[in-house]
Write a structure and sequence with these properties.
Distance between the termini of chain B: 48 Å
Organism (chain B): Sparus aurata (Gilthead sea bream)
Number of helices of chain A: 23
Enzyme class (chain B): transferase
Radius of gyration of chain A: 31 Å
Strand content of chain A: 5-15%
Number of domains of chain B: 2
GO cellular component, one term (chain B): cytoplasm
Strand order of the largest sheet of chain B: 4-10-9-8-7-5-6
Structural class of chain B: alpha/beta
CATH topology of the largest domain in chain B: Aspartate Aminotransferase, domain 2
Oligomer: heterodimer
Subunit structure (chain B): Homodimer.
Number of strands of chain B: 16
Pathway (chain B): Amino-acid degradation; L-alanine degradation via transaminase pathway; pyruvate from L-alanine: step 1/1
CATH architecture of the largest domain in chain B: 3-Layer(aba) Sandwich
Radius of gyration of chain B: 24 Å
Largest sheet of chain B: 7 strands, mixed
CATH superfamily of the largest domain in chain B: Type I PLP-dependent aspartate aminotransferase-like (Major domain)
Distance between the termini of chain A: 65 Å
Largest interface: A-B, 117 and 119 residues
Strand order of the largest sheet of chain A: 7-13-12-11-10-8-9
Largest sheet of chain A: 7 strands, mixed
Shape of chain B: globular
Shape of chain A: globular
CATH class of the largest domain in chain B: Alpha Beta
Helix content of chain A: 40-55%
Structural class of chain A: alpha/beta
């Protein structure tokens, strides 16, 4: 029998050479194990018997653990040793292993899986009826209980907590790098360190209130009255506010926003949502039974969890745009599925092209089995608004390719391109008529974080499901019910967002003024941002049609890219980090959202007050001009 | 009308569904959640029928199925709501209708919010100054044992935090799949999440004969048995217990901690009922406090997470979905992964975070709101204690029902003796016997409870979970009707 003794890296312990067999004879193991290793030059390893009771038969295992001192290079053969010691006889199985592993842990060359190379060789040499023992990983596959036991013992003794590999595989956020720097800067400013700015402007997220947009008075007045019902009887608030609050409280159990609601949301609010959808879509019916409220649209995406089968082989895939806000792709990875990127065409104003969808489908061959297409319209971060024609093509595509359509439409109110108009996928689907309108399965998302009130902090969104199999709906309901319900204040805010004050009501004039103001500011900011960005050398922004962001391309000189590499950062993250440091402006790097290889972008929120937008653009201009000087 | 699948329109063959029961995530298919299960769904239907004028032997459905205090008429704490109202509509700060300490709290919270609005996103881990307040609260609660705000994660109710930790720890295939030890009976959020994540439930039984106490020998039995088919990595403890209402003794907590250390398990301590302790001689002690009092051998090694929420205790603000967890001894690298995981959902509701802040930082003796606050808090807890006692006492007068003392939390979980004929009848109809019982109770008396099978129970025993939350008078009526029903039921099937 010939052995090779591989050096295995962190986490690969279980693929280490292992050989085991079943049998009754015990003495043979000592002999064989010694025999195998006696020719090796050193004796630092230890071995021990491990007996596991399994399916009525004793499996006897000799574990030889071999360590290699750090810093001596991975190529040299590991120092190893052996000697089958019948410690089990003395201390029992657990005790023996403990001694072994404690020695291992106290070895300065071996301080845990991630830092040192550990070679673990499990040997069991008891030929059954003259059979040769099986070698390697195959043996572990054959004896999963033993495999698990080894893993458990090693985990326990190496004191290392291993976690869900799907979570590990989720792409780390570039934001965390910048956020670390952000809190440092804030602290420095607090301590009075001199900087060219007095405070940091943070336009990383699509967060209007953070960007200086004021909450809508009507919404906040109703919420206050719901929170503190004495206000319902107080003349401090307009009559329609008080009526609205009273009506909404009447729908809460016990008349309190502190009680749970039904799983899918307050029943009357679900009806309001469906009425809104019907109105928006020119009369296309919407069934309240198909609407689910959740603590934000990222929670609604747990529909993916129903769609994606973690046990399927090949794995499930989701076609997802590039660029795309990062949380969705993280969710897909976190569920153990594969993100299949399709690229939006930057040159065509970030248009979605169906040929690209076909290409993406082809690219998935042999990798995964795509089952859903994710669309963001209006686009985040790209600000493109899809045309009806493009949507029709997408619908035909998903029908042909048997994909579930996920339409993220949270920016539906933010459309300001001259010839742009938001049309919902539900509406286009319905207008296309049968068989498409009866068959294509669609989930559409909207959120109270957006709209004119922009209440991100209240965390409520809704999802409408179309054409789903009723048998599946039952399970979706159960899954949602484990989350109990969406925050009640958020549900109320959503109700108000979809049913604003009407002309003639006391709150209407103020409401109208505030929303018009935000609408105009957004359109103005969009125009202004494109204008300013495009006036700068090396920056180029496609015309914005909608959404809450600008996503300009930024040309980064090779010398800067080199510098970024030295800093261990993605070039655009490095750019953002400099921008933050030097100008006190926090924007997102394109890397966070995905971009064509070799291109770089930045994203910033344009749904801010006009003053803040001006300040953002001034800081960007100032920084970028200096930057181009420094690196050209 | 709903859009429906047409068989074939215009001769075009219909496209089959992408998502069907056959190809959907098989784990989701297995998820059950009794707290909002068939009995509750039927209760909602019955309420609708009552509204439509359908004649029933009762005029309203009493819902004692879910720990939802406000729905049962409990009033919110005035101070909390004043502050939150001002946070929502800061114009109210200019008014003189609210006390100065409430105003000061509202200003402080708004100061910590982006754009001074609770409508802005917060950091994914939660607003920093609120995490600091939580840490200080924990220190005070635990007699000075340090708590680091970096270890606090605010969450969307405790459930969110619990599922997040489970998601982080579930791994492995086949026999290496993570096993999660949960009590029987247990709160079905755990079983649902474990099923959903494809992990393995490892059941340990609480000792009904000893007031639902937990015995480490039973933990060990369960662990060893489970090792044959999975890799147990997590132990979940609910203290005070849900649905069983027991409060763990100091000794028992120490035993659990020793066990967890020996077996290198991650400990999840669900302590959302920490203020709900009623029985004489019982006292809530946090796992963290006991862990640190056991010395560095334990306090520097045992990994754990402790959960709390705004939904229970004296405030009962379920609708805000506020909560937090504290993680202890978590490997920094693993913590970084946790932080990444929580960032996917952006942030917990800021209104819930604000409320959590008030819960951990209530009015102090020298502040104007203190007296009212304490009066309200004490009244709620005293009433709950009285209802806990009342429930146990009355239930134990019913032949065929035995109920352990409700030492804490918000539920009683009495054992019911069902006649063999009823069991047979239920099985014939394809029902679990206690589900059959609860459905019949609902139809005949308008009382909505959750069958014991939804929480797990020893084979051959039957229970139900009932909250102690209805107002005292209503609770008495409920218990009276329950007694009548049980006697009628027993006669009918004997």
């Amino acid at each position: 029998m010939s052995w090779s003794c591989p050096t295995v890296k962190a986490g690969a312990l279980l693929s280490a050479v292992c050989c085991l067999s079943l049998g009754q004879c015990r003495s043979a193991s000592c002999y064989s194990a010694s025999n195998v290793f006696s020719s090796r030059p050193a004796v630092r390893g230890l071995s021990v018997h491990l007996t596991v009771f399994m399916t009525g038969t004793f499996v006897e295992l000799t574990l030889v653990v071999v360590g290699e001192p750090r810093g001596q290079g991975a190529v040299s053969p590991p120092v190893l040793g052996c000697g089958a010691v019948a410690w089990r006889e003395r201390w029992g199985e657990e005790g023996a292993l403990q001694v072994l592993l404690e020695q291992l842990a106290s070895d300065p060359g071996l301080s845990g899986r991630d830092q040192v190379q550990v070679c673990c060789i499990a040997v069991l040499l008891h030929p059954v009826g003259g059979q040769r023992p099986r070698l390697g990983a195959q043996a572990l596959t054959d004896h999963p209980a033993l495999h698990a036991r080894m893993e458990a013992i090693l985990e326990k003794h190496l004191k290392k907590r291993e976690i869900n590999p799907n979570v590990r595989n989720m792409k780390p956020l570039e934001y965390s790098i910048l956020a670390g720097r952000l809190s440092q800067i804030k602290e420095e400013l607090r301590q009075g360190v001199k900087k060219p700015y007095q405070e940091v402007l943070d336009v990383y997220m699509g967060d209007p209130h953070k960007g200086g947009v004021k909450p809508l008075s009507f919404v906040r007045q109703v919420l206050a009255a719901c929170l503190y019902p004495q206000l319902v009887n107080s003349s401090k608030l307009p009559a329609d506010v008080r009526q609205r609050a009273q009506r909404l409280l009447g729908r809460c159990d016990g008349g309190s926003v502190g009680s749970y609601t039904a799983t899918r949301g307050i029943p009357e609010t679900l009806i309001r949502v469906s009425e809104f959808i019907t109105r928006r879509d020119g009369g296309v019916p919407s069934n309240p039974e198909n609407i689910f409220l959740s603590p934000g649209s990222q929670w609604s995406l747990s529909i993916l969890h129903v769609l994606l089968n973690p046990e399927s082989s090949p794995r499930n895939g989701v076609l997802s745009p590039v660029p795309c806000h990062n949380t969705t792709t993280m969710s897909v990875t976190g569920l153990g599925a594969v993100v299949v990127p399709y690229y939006l065409s930057e040159e065509q104003g970030w248009e979605l092209q169906v040929e690209e969808l076909h290409r993406a489908m082809e690219s998935a061959k042999g990798v995964c089995n795509p089952i859903a297409l994710y669309i963001v319209n209006p686009g985040n971060p790209d600000g493109h608004v899809q045309s009806r024609k493009s949507m029709q093509e997408v619908i035909r595509f998903v029908s042909e390719r048997k994909l579930f359509l996920l339409a993220d439409e949270v920016y539906q109110d933010y459309v300001f391109g001259e010839n742009s108009e938001f049309v919902s996928y539900k509406r286009v689907l319905s207008e296309m008529g049968p068989p498409l309108s009866d068959t294509v399965e669609l989930a559409s998302f909207h959120s109270a974080s957006k709209g004119w009130m922009g209440e991100c902090g209240l965390r409520t969104g809704y999802m409408e499901l179309v054409n789903l199999d009723p048998a599946v709906m039952k399970h979706i309901f159960t899954m949602f019910s484990t989350d109990t319900c969406a925050p009640v204040l958020g549900q109320i805010a959503l109700d108000l967002m979809l049913n604003p004050p009407q002309p003639g009501e006391p709150s209407y004039p103020l409401y109208h003024m505030e929303t018009q103001n935000i609408k105009n500011t957004l359109a103005g900011n969009g125009k202004r941002a494109v204008e300013v960005v495009n006036s700068l050398p090396g920056l180029c922004c496609q015309p914005l049609e909608g959404g809450a962001f600008a996503f300009p391309k930024v040309y980064l000189p090779p010398s800067f890219i080199q510098k970024a590499k030295e800093a261990g950062l993605e070039p655009d993250t490095f750019y953002c980090s400099r921008l933050l440091d030097e100008a006190g402006l926090l924007v997102g790097p394109g890397t966070e959202y995905g971009q064509k290889e070799g291109t770089y972008h930045i994203r910033f929120c344009i749904l801010t007050s006009a003053e803040i937008m001006e300040e953002v653009l001034t800081r960007l201009t100032c920084f970028h001009k200096q930057f181009m000087k420094d690196f050209s | 009308p709903q859009l429906r699948l047409s068989q074939a329109a215009n001769g075009v063959p219909c496209r089959g569904k992408v998502l069907t029961v056959d190809n959907m995530n098989p784990r989701v298919k297995k998820v059950e959640y009794a707290v909002r299960g068939p009995v509750v769904q039927r209760a909602v239907q019955i309420e609708k029928e009552l509204r439509e004028g359908v004649k029933k032997p009762f005029t309203e459905v009493i819902k004692a199925n879910i720990g939802d205090a406000h729905a049962m008429g409990q009033k919110p704490i005035t101070f909390f709501r004043q502050v939150l109202a001002m946070c929502s509509y800061p114009e109210l700060l200019k008014d003189n209708m609210f006390p100065e300490d409430a105003k000061q709290r509202a200003r402080r919270i708004l100061e910590a919010c982006g754009g001074h609005s609770i409508g802005a996103y917060s950091a994914s881990q939660g607003i920093e100054c609120i995490r600091q307040d939580v840490a200080r609260y924990i220190e005070k609660r635990d007699g000075g044992i340090a708590s680091n705000p970096d270890n606090i994660y605010l969450s969307t109710g405790a459930s969110d935090a619990i599922v997040t930790i489970l998601k982080l720890l579930v791994r492995g295939e086949g026999c290496d799949r993570t096993g999660v030890m949960i009590s029987i009976p247990q709160y079905p959020l755990y079983s649902a999440a474990i099923t959903d994540l494809g992990a393995v439930q490892v059941h340990y039984y609480l000792d009904e004969a000893n007031c639902w106490s937990l015995d480490v020998a039973e933990l060990r039995r369960a662990l060893n048995a489970a090792r044959q088919h999975c890799n147990p990595r997590v132990l979940c403890i609910i203290n005070p217990g849900n649905p069983t209402g027991q409060v763990q003794s100091r000794q028992c907590i120490e035993d659990v901690i020793r066990f967890v250390k020996e077996e290198h398990l991650f400990l999840m301590a669900d302590e959302v009922y920490q203020d709900n302790v009623y029985a004489e001689g019982c006292k809530f002690q946090s796992f963290k406090k006991v862990l640190f009092e056991m010395g560095p051998e334990y306090s520097s090694t045992v990994e754990m997470a402790s959960f709390h929420s705004t939904s229970k205790c004296y405030m009962g603000e379920c609708g805000f979905r506020g909560g937090y967890m504290e993680v202890i001894n978590m490997d920094p690298e693993v913590k970084a992964q946790l932080t990444k995981l929580v960032s996917v959902r952006l942030c917990p509701p800021v209104s819930g975070q604000a409320l959590m802040d008030l819960v951990v930082n209530p009015p102090q003796p020298d502040e104007p709101s203190y007296t009212t606050f304490m009066k309200e808090r004490t009244a709620v807890l005293a009433e709950l204690a009285e209802k806990a006692r009342l429930t146990e006492q009355i239930l134990n007068t019913v032949p065929g029902i035995t109920c352990n003392p409700v030492q804490g939390a918000m539920y009683s979980f009495p054992r019911i003796t069902l006649p063999q004929k009823a069991i047979d009848k239920a099985k014939e109809a394809g029902h679990i016997p206690d589900m059959f019982y609860c459905m019949k109770l609902l139809e005949e008396e308008g009382i909505c409870l959750v069958p014991g099978s939804g929480f797990g129970q020893r084979e051959g025993t039957f229970h139900f979970r009932m909250t102690i939350l209805p107002p005292t008078e209503k609770l008495k009526v409920l218990l009276q009707r329950l007694r009548d029903f049980h006697q009628r039921f027993t006669q009918e099937f004997s």
